[in-house]
Every structure is written in structure tokens, then in C-alpha cells.
Design goal:
There is one protein chain. This protein has two domains: 268 residues, TIM Barrel; 71 residues, no CATH class. The protein contains eleven helices and 19 strands. The protein has a 15-stranded mixed β-sheet that branches. Strands 12, 13, 14 and 17 form a four-stranded antiparallel β-sheet that branches. Helix 2 links the parallel strand 1 and strand 2. The longest helix is centred in the N-terminal third of the chain and has 30 residues. It is elongated, with a radius of gyration of 25 Å. It starts with a helix and ends with a strand. The structure holds zinc ion (2 copies).
Length: 390
């Protein structure tokens, strides 16, 4: 008996020591990963969350495992992601079983270990109209697969033929009803994608019907390497949330190599709390802004404070003998500000985490500026006033 205790104690000690080693090793290997915090200010009474609500994995036509999406999001400084694999397009199904909820089920527990909010989602995939729509905040993607799509998956008929049947039956309505019944937030993806809008971007009657039913609550103003001014206007006209998503299929490293991508598109969400509920409330309230390449696109009430909360004008550090005072204008954010002085037409490019020197004098004690890459309407740039501190 005593011997048994000694033995177990010894064994336990070995187990604990091994566990300890694994923990230490785990900590060390984690310490080598670096999170690149995105520098974006909070505005008004909200926390600004950096989100990507359109991501693919091997469980549809993507090329990576869901946990890698969490690692990418963490490294890039995101707060939240949604994995939105196609229900209807399963090109890997001969090798990987069709599991519509797998992306979320695998990524979500990993997200907890990285403090990344993972929101359950899916992409409902039809020809235009209505095109592709993401349902996020759903609870079971498998139930959004319709009878007709199940038939299509099993049939040998050409997919074009089945698409036309689907179209006539408006079977997509069943999928959208289910997504909304699950409490999902549905938005219209890449409305100007040339494969589905070869004649140009267009909003169809069915979209207007879905918007009036509350079955579409947002539109992607930016997707991957493109953005759509018309979609920006529709969001303003119909009071919808604006989204800017990557629609990433490959790895982050390959995505960033695309010639049209300067950085992965980000949806900035202004939330009362850093939580899934906070994000949901914000989206329902259309409290979001598009950050696409060097552009920030959105309602003036959000775009304007993003500018003012990013910059600092110092006190004068020198006044010359002609009465001109010199100030430091500092950008604490990762935004680029391509500014034009509305009176002198002087150009001022303020780069991320950088400073410029600007001058004021007694006559010009404030400068009226247009921020050319910050849009408050498709044809309207953000206008701001720069003034010395104090
Ligand atoms: Zn799509
Ligand atoms: Zn997609």
C-alpha cells in the first residue's frame, strides 16, 4: 500500500513536471507570435472593433483549416471574424465531408484562446438576383440548406439547369427565411462582382423586397480588392449597415499579394461592448464604417470622429519673426490622411503613426481641410478644420 502511494506520487510528480514543461514550452512558443495591433481610435461612446465577416475555409472552396483563420485574425489585430462557407458550393466534398457548421465549431473554441470573437455564419449562394448573401449570427447552417439544393447536390444534371429551376421557384427565399428565423443578420455580398454583374452593378426589385422585409440588413460596400460606390449610396438610402470584408479563400500571405489589395478590408464596428452581442446591436443599428485600402467610407457622424480622434495638434514649438507659428500634427492611427487645404490647395499627406509640421498665423488661425480619401457620400469627402491646441 505504502509502496503504491510512493509509486503513484512519483508518477504524479512526473506527470505534473511533464505538464509543467508543456506549459512552459507552450508559453514560449506563443510568445514568438506577435499581434500587430490595428491602431484605430474609439469614437463617441463606442469601442471600435475591427471585424471581417466573410471568410472561407476548406469546408467550402477555401484552402485553409478554420483554426488558421483565428491565428491570422489574431496576428493582424482583428477583434472578430465570421467563417462563412458556402452551403451550396462544396468543391472539396470528395475529400472532406460536407459539414456546414464545421468552420464555426472548429474556430470558435480556438478563438476563445486568442480572445477573438468568432460569429457563426454561412454564405447563401445563388445567381443574381439575389446573388450571394451572408447570414451571420445564425445557429445552424445545415438547416439553411434547402431541399432543392440537396437535390442539386445529389443530381447529375448540369448545375446551370438546376440554377434556372432554383430561380423560377425562388427557392432562395426558403434559405433566407430560415437564416432570419434563426435570428441571423443577413447582408448582400459583393453586389458589383463582375461575374454576377457583367452589365454593371444593379439593385433588383427582389433586393428592395428583402430590405423592406428586414431580411437584408447590410451590404458589402467593399469585398476583397474592390469597392462599390453605388452600394455605399444604397446603404445611405435604405439605412443599412456597411460591410468591408476580405472574402479570403487562400492564406493571408497570398491574399496580401493581390495587386488590388493594400491591406485586408476591415469592417469597423462601433460597439457598446467588445462582445458578439455588442457587434450584433451595432450592426442592427448600422453603426459601422468601411476601411478599404487607404479609404474610409461611411456616414459622416462616424467618419468625422475617426479623423479627430486619430490626430493631435501640438502647442506651438516656434514662432518666426513674421508671426508664423509652427505646430506638430501627429497621426496616432493606422489610417492615411490625404488632405488638401481648401484655401491654398496645398497637399498634406499624413501617414500612419507619423507627424507633419504645419503653420498657423494670426490671419489664418485655422485651416479648412478636405480629407480626400475619407468619403461621407460617394461624391463627397470629409471636411475638417485643423486648429492649434488649446
Ligand atoms: Zn460570394
Ligand atoms: Zn465568399
Amino acid at each position: 500500500m505504502k509502496l503504491f502511494f510512493v509509486f503513484t506520487f512519483g508518477l504524479m510528480r512526473t506527470i505534473f513536471f511533464t505538464a509543467f514543461l508543456f506549459t512552459v514550452f507552450g508559453l514560449f512558443s506563443q510568445a514568438q507570435m506577435v499581434r500587430n495591433d490595428m491602431m484605430v481610435p474609439d469614437i463617441l461612446e463606442f469601442e471600435t472593433l475591427k471585424c471581417d465577416f466573410h471568410i472561407h475555409t476548406v469546408f467550402s472552396d477555401g484552402n485553409v483549416w478554420p483554426t488558421i483563420r483565428v491565428e491570422e485574425a489574431w496576428t493582424m489585430g482583428y477583434d472578430a471574424i465570421s467563417i462563412t462557407d458556402h452551403i451550396e458550393y462544396q468543391p472539396h466534398k470528395e475529400y472532406i465531408p460536407v459539414q456546414h457548421n464545421a468552420g464555426y465549431e472548429i474556430a470558435m473554441p480556438h478563438g476563445k484562446r486568442r480572445n477573438i470573437i468568432v460569429i457563426q455564419g454561412t454564405e447563401i449562394t445563388r445567381q443574381m438576383p439575389p446573388g450571394h448573401l451572408n447570414g451571420i449570427f445564425i445557429n445552424n447552417a445545415a438547416k439553411i440548406e434547402t431541399e432543392l439544393i440537396r437535390l442539386k447536390h445529389s443530381a447529375k444534371t448540369s448545375s446551370n439547369f438546376m440554377d434556372s429551376i432554383d430561380h423560377e421557384l425562388k427557392d432562395y427565399m426558403n434559405a433566407l427565411r430560415e437564416a432570419n428565423d434563426q435570428g441571423g443578420f443577413v447582408f448582400w455580398n459583393h453586389p458589383g462582382w463582375t461575374s454576377q454583374a457583367p452589365e454593371g452593378i444593379e439593385i433588383y426589385d427582389v433586393h428592395k423586397e428583402l430590405i423592406s422585409k428586414g431580411w437584408i440588413k447590410g451590404i458589402e460596400v467593399a469585398n476583397s480588392g474592390e469597392w462599390y460606390p453605388e452600394a455605399f449610396q444604397w446603404c445611405l438610402d435604405y439605412d443599412l449597415a456597411m460591410l468591408s470584408n476580405s472574402d479570403i479563400h487562400s492564406t493571408e500571405a497570398f491574399f496580401e499579394r493581390s495587386p488590388t489589395v493594400e491591406h485586408r478590408p476591415v469592417t469597423l464596428v462601433f460597439a457598446e461592448s467588445r462582445s458578439a452581442e455588442g457587434i450584433r446591436d451595432a450592426l442592427d443599428d448600422a453603426r459601422s464604417v468601411v476601411w478599404f485600402n487607404n479609404m474610409v467610407i461611411g456616414r459622416e457622424k462616424y467618419v468625422e470622429p475617426l479623423f479627430y480622434n486619430s490626430i493631435e495638434v501640438s502647442a506651438a514649438f516656434f514662432t518666426d519673426d513674421r508671426g508664423r507659428s509652427y505646430y506638430n500634427l501627429k497621426n496616432n492611427s493606422d489610417f492615411i490622411f490625404n488632405m488638401v487645404d481648401l484655401d491654398t490647395r496645398e497637399k498634406l499627406d499624413l501617414l500612419p503613426r507619423s507627424s507633419l509640421i504645419i503653420q498657423f498665423d494670426e490671419v489664418r488661425d485655422a485651416r479648412r481641410i478636405s480629407v480626400e480619401n475619407f468619403l461621407t457620400e460617394p461624391d463627397n469627402t470629409l471636411k475638417v478644420v485643423l486648429k492649434p491646441a488649446g
